[in-house]
Amino acid sequence: MSKDLVQAMQILEEEKGISSQVIKEALESALVLAYKKRYDNAQNVEVEFDEESGSIKVFSVKEVVETKYDPTFEISLEEALEINRAYEIGDKIKFEVTPNDFGRIATQTAKHVVMQRIREAERDIIYNEFIQYEDEILTGTVERFEKGIFYINLDKVEAVMPIREQIAGENLEIDERVKVYVSKIDKTPRGPQVVVSRSHPDFLRRLFEQEVPEIYDGIVEIVSISREAGDRSKVAVRSRDENIDPVGTCVGQKGQRVQTIVNELNGENMDIIEYSEDPATFIRNAMSPAEVINVIFEEEGNSCIVVVPDYQLSLAIGKKGQNARLAARLTSHKIDIKSETAYEEYLSEQSAEIEEDYLVNNEEELTEEYDAFDEAEIIADVEEIEEIEEQDSIDEQLEEQDLAENNYDAEAVEEAISEVEHDYEQDYDELLEEQEEQDEL
User: Fold this and answer.
1) Does a structural domain hold residue 377?
2) Taking every annotated instance into account, which residue ranges of this chain make up the domain S1 motif (predicted)?
């Protein structure tokens, strides 16, 4: 433990990038442990390592008190003043207690602890180096494949790519150079654990940034991505410049830009759509390649009904519901797809349900209204009957009056007729008498 250790510390700092201060602190901690283990001494021990000379000293630290009760931890004020008149109660005084054979013991014990600290420091260096690459794309080499996990060599660290981070059906060869997305970096007792991915949506985002300068520069923005790795993805983009078409920019001339990304992802289908602030328009675009007739939003929540032509229902839903599923993720809406015919039936059912619910929920109120209506009808009927009876009574009186008047007229007529008949009989008799007289003549 001399100048050789100091030189070794300098070499570690130059080659490994480990600060000599880190090694010094690790060494002092190791020597404290070695001393306590070997001499079973109290906890008030400090070890000082001189980086220039390489010397090591052990000190016992005692507190100045008025009356000393434990000589291991305390020293009386009277004793402290004999050492130095400036000491006061509460001060700490160091007493060197370095054993003669401590160098050999310390060397054996400290070696393992120092190496452990060095390894920890190296891990911290690697961690700090790779943490800056989190959420970025790196290129590595496939080292091995074990129990469904790919191990990717990223030079200073071996990254892992679990099954959930792999593209379904993709077969990577050993020693193959491959692009990966650094999704997470964890600190573990064995060093930094770097998790990489090729299925993460942000892997697709970074690929677009590499291939489309307008996205990297911020002129075109990727708003959202929904992806089923290895099969199909939908990417919503918008432009901050009115003169730039975001979709055309991402596709590139003759589709070269997007084709490069598709090739990297082993033929994964890509739908690039234009984002809109209007949710209905955005959902229409997201349902591509299907045509949308109407988008009806529910009153609560991010739910909507998308109406499509009858002949495009299967296209809108997609294989195993994939198109609808990706559109829902892209727009953050729950989408219920219906054909025109089904939507008309749905409206009819809704109307019937609303009517039935109204009757059920308002049964008591309707019953009260019906009862009140019934009572009012009965009262009205009684009043009507009374009116009819009263009118009948009046009619009877009028009829009697008319009858009386009619009877009066009949008697007068009869009297007139009788008079006429009487006069006629008289005239007839007189005429007969005159005829008879003439006959006699």
Assistant:
1) yes
2) 135-199
